[in-house]
Design a protein that fits this description.
Two copies of one chain form a homodimer. Chain A is 38% helix and 22% strand. Chain A is α/β, with parallel strands linked by helices and 218 residues long. Chains A and B meet through strand 10, helix 9 and strand 11 of A and strand 10, helix 9 and strand 11 of B. Strand 11 of chain A pairs antiparallel with strand 11 of chain B.
């Protein structure tokens, strides 16, 4: 599949590019072409250095990548995502969009701040064409650990979405990353349950001297 | 310590009575004395059968138990807890009250339904005398597993509360149950983060053919 990673030059974007390389065509996306190309080259070099098979890994601007992609990964901060997607609207058709987006703010501690739709995922579905299938997932995977290719990721990944085929595709993609276990989180209306875990995990980590917390349901 | 377990004849109450027996004075509480005494006898017999040291385990009505207790465990459903605590108000002084209470309802799936205070724990603190120290914890421990004394409980227990000493006491009580790891969840204002996990875990279990889910932050 052709996977466009928006925010592909960021840390969590890097992890997905590296983990899905060799299995899919990866489009490392940015607003700036130079930055995208430079990150894609860096990831290819890293994979070569690790002796891993590298595939098609291309740096490109968001617009070009989205148009031909099967999957669009939204690994971008909440701030700015509405404007970003409104600008990119003409390039969306019937892709699967994976939202990692978590709206939160810090007062005394981090708190989940959902938009009026109830979650970032529902807001994103509102913005994009109806034919786009939004799936909400990967909110609680440590970027640092995801980018460490030697590391097994013994975590659970909750996947929410209203289109069963799209959800199934994302669960299969999850299985391709060693030791991640995808769990069906229900429809997109349930996305707030998993988005809201992110600030909770950050608070727990800070208060208990832990770091890069993920979650296992046991 | 003297631990009064409200809802002590229910399944989660049974687990705490059994796990803390031998270390503390356990008061198994109910509105009906006969029921309380009968459950306490049953727990004592079970501990004897298991060859475990049994201690002071007494069945009694809520009023009598609370008055002399150091700790009051609220292992009761959300429905009815406001009326229950208003009626028991005169018996509370400066106890530590551990709230396991989760307000939720089922539509298509289970959803967290916090009261206007923001969480059950904050509502309970509102009802009780200011001198009572409310600590919010143990929302996501499986009653069935807790009552199986041979089972190691390799779960995390998030503890929220505004009184540091009370929170420390509850974290120590958590350490006494084999393999549970207490984590500091911050003040009582953060309690909604852990209360809201319960409906999420129930939904995940139902959708994925799992059962008695707890949580590990890894």
């Amino acid at each position: 599949m052709k996977i466009a990673i928006l925010g592909g030059t960021g840390s969590i974007g890097e992890g997905f590019a590296l983990r899905w390389a060799g299995k899919h065509d990866i489009l490392v996306c940015s607003r700036e072409l130079d930055k995208a190309v430079s990150s894609a080259d860096e990831y290819k070099n890293l994979l070569t250095y690790k002796g891993m098979q590298c595939c098609s890994m291309t740096g490109c601007v968001n617009e070009n990548a989205i148009e031909g992609a099967d999957i669009v990964v939204l690994s971008v901060p909440y701030q700015g995502v509405v404007t970003l997607l409104k600008n990119l609207y003409p390039y969306f058709k019937n892709q699967i969009v994976i939202s990692l987006v978590v709206p939160m703010k810090k007062n005394n501690f981090f708190e989940y701040m959902p938009p009026e739709q109830g979650s970032a995922a529902l807001e994103i579905q509102d913005i994009l064409p109806k034919s786009v299938k939004v799936v909400s997932s990967y909110h609680n995977i440590s970027a640092r650990k995801l980018a460490q290719l030697d590391l097994e990721l013994n975590y659970d990944v909750v996947v929410c979405g209203d289109d069963d085929d799209a959800k199934h595709t994302v669960m299969e993609l999850t299985h391709e990353i060693k030791s991640l276990r995808p769990l069906d989180g229900g429809g997109l209306a349930s996305s707030y349950m998993i988005e809201s875990l992110t600030p909770f995990l950050i608070n727990l980590a800070m208060r208990n001297g832990l770091s890069d917390l993920g979650v296992k349901f046991v």
